[in-house]
Design brief:
The structure holds 2 protein chains of 2 kinds. By secondary structure, chain A is mainly alpha-helical. Chain A has helices at about 20-45, 45-70, 80-90, 100-115, 125-135, 140, 160-165, 170-180, 185-195, 205-215, 225-240, 245-250, 255-260, 270-290, 300-305, 310. Chain A starts with about 20 loop residues before the first helix and ends in an 18-residue tail after the last helix. By secondary structure, chain B is an alpha/beta fold. Helix content of chain B is about 30%, strand content about 20%. In chain B, the strands form 4 sheets. Chain B has a 6-stranded mixed sheet with strand order 1-14-13-17-15-16. In chain B, strands 2-8-7-4 form a 4-stranded antiparallel sheet, with no helix packed on it. Chain B has a 4-stranded parallel sheet with strand order 11-10-9-12, sandwiched between helices. In chain B, α5 crosses α9 (about 270-280) and α12 (about 385-390) runs antiparallel to α13. The longest helix of chain B is centred in the C-terminal third of the chain and has 21 residues, at about 425-445. Chain B is globular. The chains are: A mainly alpha, B alpha/beta. At the A-B interface, α1 of A face β15, β16, α14 and α15 of B.
Chain lengths: ~325, ~450
């Protein structure tokens, strides 16, 4: 032993590292999205699964091929492209053409993520960019909603979402009729369960909260941003005279708050920044719903806040032992 | 019961079981030692002996008229063979005294001194003459810590038995085996700084050491009010600032010292060395350390002369397996990986770890995904990801504004990073760059 030369590794401290890496983190997000996906299949049929599969395959291949073409290391095993593909599918109508899901996914990955340097370099959420582009390019496909298969009053192949009904001048009573609810509490219940028209994964508050709870318990996401966003939506809707509970349950608030506004890369890292991001995204969403042309505003609300993240990250918290320098009187 | 602690921190595997219950073993006196002349933070010592001199164990062989500095002593009796640079555990070659044992064990200790009778100046001089430094790893001269400026009265002294580094159990064993020495040393240190209260603080995983220590309060506290504190088992609970926060609720100001808030912290091993310096007149010439790790076939707690070369302990005292890939001086969180076994035990060596290939795995670094885990883990409550981003864009001033200098390199951020970014290393480098830039600015009269 003594005279045998040893091959020793030299490296800086620490020499210990946690087993938790990017792949595991993304894997947890995928697990957390599974209930919502299952809900999509239950409410809108097996086509939901097909749209999701196409979106994921497109996202992963786009990332792989793009990085190959640029002769960069490929990182598809980190699963972040799977998350993007999954998220995009969950915010598409179940009737979306498959090619459209593929285009949206690939656009989000290539333009919003890879052109900015890949995971960690992007400033906007790739799934939301993908959806925004689809919404602008093929608005007809993006607003063709199928009713829930389990709705009490299914008499049409297409319908409007609860928010769409309001935007077209309808009332809450019309919304109740569309989901077959006889009163306000029945409406809340149907919406909480997810038995309504909407994007594949956005309808069921119950299933989304289930996934979110998993991410909170495993400490993958921080509650500050989603809480701020939901409270802001609730408060602003109430100020505008909209039903606040309905407003939180309708559209993509919960999916956006727990799964998009918590995206590490495109949201603030500072505590105050997180609160501000959530409040801003909530306010923008309600303003778009109330004053804009679109019935729903979560996509643009979050994307707009993505842009100001560098400023929100300047609000750094108090350091250990930091004493404010005393002002010197001149 | 909710345990006292600080905000942030991490829970790495403790891995203390292999050595926790193994009593400290004294190694056979080595045939030769390599004693580095300067082993403390501060000024460089000058040799007081020449090649060919016979030196006695405990004889002062290096010192300098400066502050801070800590004298250095022969740890075995023998002949000075050469004085030349040799590798040391901080990876820099430092001037070292090579002593070859002559087989006798004559000593040249100082006369015992009663710390409670002598003057404060005499007491501080004794600690300095004994070459006592912080033995938790920082190696800061203890006499300087014991002599805070007059305008900063110290009311609390804390004995640090937290030992939050994984694997290491030497402080725990010292508490279990020499509780009277630690309490006596704590009383002496409290007396010197004029502290009215003295605490022994440990992590909850060493709670069984408390009754052992408390038993000694009656006979050795010298009238000083003593108590024990159980802090949460969390890394870096034993960091000076963290332990003070946990024990007293006080926060050491950014860029400040514990004395600024009336507190002083001493490692339990250091307190034992203080006691020996007074009661036995014995300078710091030996120390205990833990030997462990997956590639160590003989995990143990050892007590060896300062300057004992690691290679001389293998394989008689320490056996290592063939798949060893990393040798660390210190713990896994803050220790230094060394290139060979030709490194001597220093005053700051609290442990030596041998890691297998699997334990030495290197990970591919990825881009930061801004998950924020580093900020949650940072005990200094900094934003490591933002500091890293500022350093990557060469913006030293921005990194400084976020708190680069407040980083004390505990390694918690690197430990939790899912993108495997060597954040701690970045900050060490960044601090060096910042220091250089500030020095340059000062030269240009800015």
């Amino acid at each position: 032993m003594e005279n045998k030369p040893m091959k020793l590794v030299l490296s800086g401290a620490p020499h210990f590292v946690t087993g938790n890496d990017i792949q595991k983190t993304m894997g947890m997000v995928i697990i957390a999205l599974l209930p919502a996906l299952a809900g999509g299949v239950y409410f809108f049929g097996p086509r939901a699964l097909l749209v999701t599969a196409v979106s994921i395959v497109s996202a992963v291949s786009a990332e792989f091929l793009f990085r190959k073409a640029l002769r960069r290391e490929t990182h598809v095993s980190d699963l972040s492209a799977v998350v993007t593909g999954m998220l995009l599918a969950l915010i598409l109508p179940v009737s979306a053409p498959l090619w459209m899901a593929a285009v949206g996914s690939a656009f989000g990955i290539v333009v919003a993520k890879e052109l900015f340097g890949g995971l960690g370099g992007n400033f906007a959420n790739p799934a939301l960019v993908g959806r925004a582009v689809l919404l602008m390019s093929w608005p007809a496909f993006m607003t063709r909603w199928s009713p829930s298969l389990h709705a009490a009053a299914v008499d049409a192949t297409t319908t409007a979402t609860p928010l769409g009904i309001l935007k077209l001048g309808g009332t809450l009573a019309d919304v109740m009729k569309s989901v077959g609810a006889s009163g306000k509490s029945a409406l809340y219940l149907q919406m909480f369960l997810g038995n309504r028209a909407g994007s594949i994964g956005e309808t069921s508050a119950l299933l989304l909260l289930l996934g979110a709870a998993f991410l909170v318990v495993t400490r993958v996401i921080d509650l500050r941003t989603p809480v701020a966003m939901i409270v802001a939506v609730f408060a602003a809707s109430w100020l505008f005279g909209r039903d606040p509970v309905f407003s939180v349950l309708a559209g993509g608030i919960l999916l956006g708050a727990f799964f998009m506004a918590t995206d590490y890369v495109t949201t603030p890292v500072t505590p105050i920044g997180k609160w501000a991001f959530g409040i801003g995204a909530g306010l923008m969403t309600v303003l778009i719903r109330q004053l804009g042309n679109f019935p729903e505003g979560v996509t643009y609300g979050i994307l707009l806040m993505n842009v100001v993240v560098p400023y929100l990250d300047k609000i750094i918290p108090r350091k250990f032992g930091f004493v404010k320098p005393r002002k010197v009187n001149a | 019961m909710s345990l006292k602690t600080f905000r942030g921190g991490i829970h790495p595997p403790e891995n203390k079981e292999p050595t926790r219950d193994l009593p400290i073993e004294r190694v056979p006196t080595p045939k030769s030692v390599v004693i580095h002349l300067t082993q403390a933070i501060g000024a460089q010592n000058q040799p007081l002996i020449k090649v060919g001199d016979r030196v006695l164990k405990g004889q002062k062989i290096g010192d300098v008229q400066a502050c801070p500095a800590a004298a250095i002593h022969a740890s075995i009796t023998g002949i000075v063979k050469k004085i030349e640079p040799a590798p040391q555990s901080n990876l820099k070659d430092g001037m070292a005294v090579f002593i070859e044992a002559d087989g006798t064990d004559e000593t040249a200790y100082m006369l015992p001194l009663d710390a409670f009778v002598c003057s404060r100046e005499e007491a501080i001089k004794r600690v300095r003459d004994a070459g006592v430094v912080g033995m938790g790893g920082a190696s800061f001269p203890t006499d300087v810590k014991l002599a805070p400026p007059a305008d900063k009265p110290v009311d609390i002294i804390i004995a640090n038995g937290a030992e939050c580094e994984p694997y290491l159990t030497i402080d725990y064993r010292t508490m279990m085996e020499s509780p009277a020495d630690i309490v006596e040393g704590l009383a002496i240190a409290a007396h010197i700084v004029g502290a009215s209260k003295a605490y022994i603080a440990i992590e909850s995983n060493k709670a069984d050491a408390l009754p052992v220590i408390e038993e000694q309060f009656a006979g050795h506290s010298h009238g000083i009010l003593m108590g024990t504190i159980i802090a949460a088992t969390k890394y870096p609970e034993g960091g000076e600032k963290m332990l003070i926060k946990a024990a007293t609720g006080r926060e050491v100001p950014s860029h400040g010292l514990p004395a600024d808030i009336g507190v002083i912290v001493q490692n339990v091993g250091t307190l034992k060395a203080i006691k020996e310096a007074f009661a036995d007149g014995k300078p710091l010439t030996e120390r205990g350390f833990t030997v462990s790790g997956g590639a160590c076939k003989t995990p143990k707690n050892l007590y060896a002369p300062i300057g004992t070369v690691l290679a001389d302990l293998v394989p008689d005292v320490i056996q290592i397996s063939d798949d060893v890939r990393k040798v660390l001086f210190g713990g896994p969180m803050m220790g230094v990986a060394v290139p060979s076994l030709q490194i001597p035990i220093a005053k700051g060596t609290s442990g030596i770890l041998f890691f297998t290939a699997a334990e030495s795995r290197q990970y591919e670094e990825r881009q930061c995904i801004r998950c924020g885990r580093c900020a949650d883990a940072c005990p200094a409550q900094l934003m490591p990801m933002l500091m890293n981003a500022a350093l990557l864009s060469d913006d030293l001033n921005r990194a400084d504004a976020i708190g680069l200098v407040d980083c004390f390199e505990c390694g918690a951020c690197s430990y939790v990073c899912p993108a495997r970014i060597p954040l701690t290393q970045q900050f060490k480098l960044g601090k060096d760059l910042l220091r250089n830039q500030r020095a340059k600015e000062a030269r240009h009269g800015k």
